TrEMBL record:
Superkingdom of this protein's organism: Bacteria
Name the UniProt record assigns to this protein: Aminotransferase class-III
The keyword Cell wall biogenesis/degradation is annotated on this UniProt entry: no
Family to which the UniProt record says this protein belongs: Belongs to the class-III pyridoxal-phosphate-dependent aminotransferase family.
Keywords: Aminotransferase, Coiled coil, Pyridoxal phosphate, Transferase
Cofactor section: pyridoxal 5'-phosphate
InterPro entries linked to this entry: Aminotrans_3, Aminotrans_3_PPA_site, PyrdxlP-dep_Trfase, PyrdxlP-dep_Trfase_major, PyrdxlP-dep_Trfase_small
Organism: Ruminiclostridium cellulolyticum (strain ATCC 35319 / DSM 5812 / JCM 6584 / H10) (Clostridium cellulolyticum)
Coiled-coil segments: 174-201
Stored Pfam families: Aminotran_3 (PF00202)
GO MF terms held by the record: pyridoxal phosphate binding; transaminase activity
Length: 436
């Protein structure tokens, strides 16, 4: 019998696991004192690493001053301050913010708000379109909205009804950056067909602007813009899930800003407070707020810990720090360097199909040398195990026939030599595995 602790997304019997007892900067230490470089930033949230004094100080101060406020009946100045800040860094139509305890919970709320909004404007459309292979969370609504690893949904049904898949703009026949006009046209045609066929059913479209768990697959501009314009033309809500891509991870504060889009709802979490405490947010546009006000409706969503002031204080300190540090410039400069060394050192390895990198979010897509198909899950596990054994934590994405990728999400504070070390380790692991 192993530990009584059941790790999420793991079998009950677990395997041998590395027990982490201390974190310092970008490094983690296990219970035998061994040091690991965390090239995954926790679960893509520890952008400033494990020992940031400004964020820790804000948490300590808030615990001393006031550790909790009833979110239903009492005002919460930290919540107002953070909501104002999120409105100011998203876009001019965003006027309200709901706080949640996670990204999954933010998606639950976005689904409910979308369906209720449609009802408030006098329609009865409850279907929601989502991109094939995207991941939006593991609660019932967000799990139903996710088409990443559909096998894992088996036996938990029935799922929440009403989700429709949109075509994934990715083709194994060509590299992502080199998608031909023809390939793009095919994707656009398929997208249009699904949108037109379901026009009278949809209340919202949720997009993950770069599929993160799916293997760092970017949705190209024309695809995203068409979704945005379709939503505007048909009074369908455009929901942008920025849980993974938000707070500078891909080089803009939010990914939708790269293409000047205006989502009606933006969900976020992870980097919002450097992952030190559970927090998510749902940013909501003025037209939704007005519809609720006009019909005199409350927002029926609550968890006792929503808008906990300690979590909010950590977020305010994190965003303040990002602004003081001009973090987008930092991320973009590090991204350029990282892209160069990844390409210089890895792209010639026979197993590497392509390297996808946006900001500090990277996937090294590994392929079978002869067929160009993704390597098997078992082969991928061998590569990632070697990376672990060489003292570095990274992640994997395996979607049959689409991608087998090593995922690397370095911290914003990683230095060039830290990035060099990641590339060195990954190169060794891939080279050692290429005979398999
Ligand atoms: N949405 C996206 C795009 C995610 O990547 C994730 C988590 O990885 C979620 C939602 C769910 O967030 P959480 O794990 O905080 O519930």
């Amino acid at each position: 019998m192993g530990s009584t602790y059941w790790r999420p997304f793991n079998r009950a019997d677990g395997e041998n696991v590395i027990n982490i007892v201390k974190g310092e900067g970008i490094f983690l230490y296990d219970d035998s004192g061994r040091r690991f470089q965390d090239a995954y930033s926790g679960l893509w949230n520890m952008n400033y690493g494990y020992s940031d004094n400004d964020i820790k100080k804000a948490i300590k101060t808030q615990i001393e001053e006031l550790p909790y406020i009833n979110p239903i009946t009492l005002g919460n100045p930290k919540a107002s301050e953070l909501a104002d800040k999120l409105c100011s860094i998203t876009h001019d139509e965003i006027t309200k913010v709901l706080f949640t305890c996670s990204g999954s919970e933010a998606i639950e709320a976005a689904i409910k708000i979308s369906r209720k909004y449609n009802n408030l404007i006098g329609k009865k459309q409850y279907h929601i379109a989502v991109i094939s292979e995207s991941y939006h969370g593991s609660y019932y609504g967000s799990m139903s909205a996710s088409f990443y690893d559909e096998n894992e949904k088996q036996g938990y049904g029935p799922m929440v009804d009403g989700f429709i898949k949109l075509v994934l703009p990715f083709s194994r026949r060509c590299k992502t950056e080199e998608m031909t006009i023809d390939e793009k046209n095919k994707v656009m045609q398929k997208l249009e067909e699904t949108l037109q066929n379901n026009k009278d059913k949809l209340c919202a479209i949720i997009v993950e602007p770069i599929l993160a768990s799916g293997g760092v697959i970017p949705l190209f501009e024309e695809y995203l813009s068409r979704i945005n314009s379709f939503c505007r033309e048909n009074n369908v809500l455009f929901v942008c899930d920025e849980v993974a891509t938000g707070f500078g991870r891909t080089g803009t504060m939010f990914r939708f800003q790269k293409f000047d889009l205006k989502p009606d709802i933006i969900t976020m979490s992870k980097g919002i407070n450097n992952g030190y405490l559970p927090l998510g947010a749902v940013c909501i546009s003025e037209k939704i707020e007005s519809a609720f006000l006009k019909e005199n409706q409350i927002l029926f969503h609550l968890s006792t810990q929503n808008a906990n002031p300690i979590c909010l204080a950590a977020a305010l300190a994190t965003i303040d720090k990002m602004e003081r540090d001009n973090i987008l410039e930092v991320v973009n400069a590090k991204s350029t360097y990282f892209k160069k060394i990844l390409n210089d050192d890895l792209s010639n390895l026979s197993m590497v199909f392509e390297i996808r990198i946006h900001g500090l979010m990277a996937a090294i897509d590994l392929a079978d040398r002869e067929t160009n198909n993704p390597i098997s899950h078992e082969q991928l596990i061998k590569v990632i195990s070697t990376i672990y054994s060489l003292g570095c934590f990274a992640g994997i994405s395996y979607t049959k026939d689409i991608t087998s990728s090593i995922l690397i999400f370095p911290q914003y504070i990683a230095t060039e030599s830290d990035l060099d070390n990641i590339v060195k380790i990954v190169k060794t692991a891939i080279s050692n595995s290429s005979g398999i």
